[in-house]
Input
Amino acid sequence: MVPSTVAALLTVFATGALAHSGCGGHEIGRRNLGGRTIQARAVTDEASAAESTDVATECTYYSYEPATSVTSQFPTIWESASILSNDTEATELFSKINSTLNEKLPDDVPHGTPTGDWTGVNYDSSDPDCWWTHAKCDTPSSDTGLDADITVSPEPETWGLGFDDGPNCSHNALYDLLLENDQKATMFFIGSNVLDWPLQALRAYDEGHQICVHTWSHQYMTALSSEVAFAELYYTQKAIKAILGVTPQCWRPPFGDVDNRIRMIASMLNMTTIVWSDDTDDWAAGSDGITEEDVNNNYQTVIDAAGKGNYSTHGPIVLNHELTNYTMSVFETYYPKIKAAFKYVVPICTATNTTQPYAETNVTCPTFESYIAGTTNTSSSTVNTDGTTAANSSSSSESSGASSSASASGSDSSSSSSSSSSAAFRDGVSGMGVVFAGLVAGAVLL
Output
């Protein structure tokens, strides 16, 4: 990177890194599982966790056995992930991935620091690593074998809806809004938050939202060693599998910071890289000169572009955050305007017609045509002993208004939640075996 570019990036991102370090800040309630609990909340299941929209109540800590019982299998939350010394599966998997990296991308090395400091970084201005932070590169050269990042919705007049940095302990008001409108979204979850707030994660999945990975500790990924970057992705996948019972095949890099080395690690974990076309800057309000008025203007710019016909051939994927009460409430304010301006608002898996969002093939995301026709629910099936499949009742709502996930409303949903979380716990330890099994195919594609 040329010095002028470094200086510009430092100007843009220095305070951004500081602001975004609040992912999991006081409103999300960052904590260490298993540590001393000063306040405890009597939450026993997903339904009771979804009852209140009082922030103090929502963010009072609770203990959830399927999460606390597996913490020894994960790195310390909110610290840079590393492969656990007794995790032979992760060690063997990384060894294979690292061998491919050394063969295919020997010159792609870490850039800067995990907090986004590029002082002294010299990077080739031709951008050989397709480093998004350098020049917003999202299409690796064909000789890498890597797919382009997903940046837009291929469906015209369609807003690809997603939220970063969850699950947030105080998200009930936002999720209530989504549930009331039968609106599904793509949730990019931080692994540390999943173990911190497992019942909030369960609500997202059970109400039909697509779940993707947003790393373990939310740092600039291209600054990390390959082993740490692998662990950040691997253990987040594993945490989601342990709590929700599914293994995501999608991820979003914090700050959009990705290059070919990181893309290849993610690809060999069977994950597609998703970034965005438009940024609301909701996460930066109050820092680096970004005001709430700026955030409002950013929302309005995308909305106005729809009115001008700018999305007649595609749609935007907009960066929104489940980070603080402000970032969630400002979306709630603009949601009616978004629906009025855009023909469709759909989760990213639907926008891209990605029907298999997880390694577990019995869970599917609705196609775009199905979603706009009214089938917005994810569907799942089980394999019978005779080899046939049987459809299961979805935990998300359909346009008819039937909602089996109405998690705040009754004993049936509570029972269902307990059953699903128990199953997730039983399957959690072995979940990454699916990824390991897919490695050979991934290596061939690369």
Notes: Confidence is low (pLDDT under 50) at residues 1-29, 31-39, 382-389, 393-446. The CA atoms of residues 215 and 332 lie 26 Å apart. The radius of gyration is 21 Å.
